[in-house]
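User:
Note these tokens:
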Amino acid sequence: MFGDYHYVDRSDISQEGNYRGFLQDVKTAESELKQKAKLCIIEIGASNAVPTVRRQSESRARDGHVNATLIRLNLDDAEQDVPTDLYDFIPVKMGALDGLKRIDELVTRLGEQENK
């Protein structure tokens, strides 16, 4: 991991399989619904020191197969290197737990408004 090419962790291999399965499920759902999927990518704590995570998030958000929103939660680097080609990019200058709690509050509130 991160330059240690001898690093092997079974949980990483399992998670990679889960991730690829999720991406395939999104494509399958799109073909069944005959419309682009709506996807929210929440990037948590990936600073400029870990550009591979940021590149992966941005790449998925740019994927033409989905309508994606990228939310970048980072106390220090949320607004650095803003991808200007992403229409739905939301930098949030908060720590992970506070940011996730705030997102949960907003989603809950939106759900309540839709049910009225």
User: Anything to note?
Assistant: The CA atoms of residues 49 and 77 lie 10 Å apart. The beta strands are 37-44, 66-73, 89-92. The chain has three helices and three strands.
